[in-house]
Amino acid sequence: MDDVSWMKELPLFWGNEHLFVSHAGIAEQAVNPFKEDDGYSVLWNRSPLKNIGKLQIIGHTPSKEPKYDEHSHSWNIDTGAAYSGYLTGVKVQPNGEVIEFIQEKTDSRDK
Predict the structure, then answer these.
(1) What is the mean pLDDT of the chain?
(2) How much of the chain is helix, strand and coil, in % rounded to 5?
């Protein structure tokens, strides 16, 4: 199986009773956050996130550093690797406790 075929088979999100991890998060005004072509879907959303009673971890909207939003109980970890010079990841306990953020320098050839 090639990489593109493998990626097409991946689910839109991962979660457990404490965590919800997706590309863009569940928007406050989302009607169906899993409808892939909707602008408020977990793929495309750039609007405020809904507090879903568990920690959301998202990317999609670059910021200078990982950013926590108390209202939605979410972390945006997209640090704009192409712009900032580093890619950010986060280690999280299954209960939603953040252990640490990890930053990897972007190779200048990737810009």
Answers:
(1) 93
(2) 10, 30, 60
Say whether both 8 and 56 belong to one domain: yes
In a domain, residue 40? The reply is: yes
55 in the same domain as 16: yes
For 86, other C-beta atoms within 10 Å of its C-beta total 14
The model's pTM is: 0.89
Using CA atoms, how far apart are residues 96 and 92, in angstroms rounded to an integer? 6
What single DSSP character describes residue 7? H
pLDDT at residue 82, as a whole number: 82
Alpha-carbon dihedral sign for residues 49, 53, 55, 58: negative
Q: Which residues contact 70 (CB under 8 A, 6 or more apart)?
A: none
pLDDT tens, residue by residue, 28-59 = 999 999 999 999 999 999 999 999 999 999 99
Within a domain: 67: no
pLDDT on residue 107: 81
Structural domain boundaries, residue 30: 1-60
Domains identified in the chain, total number:
2
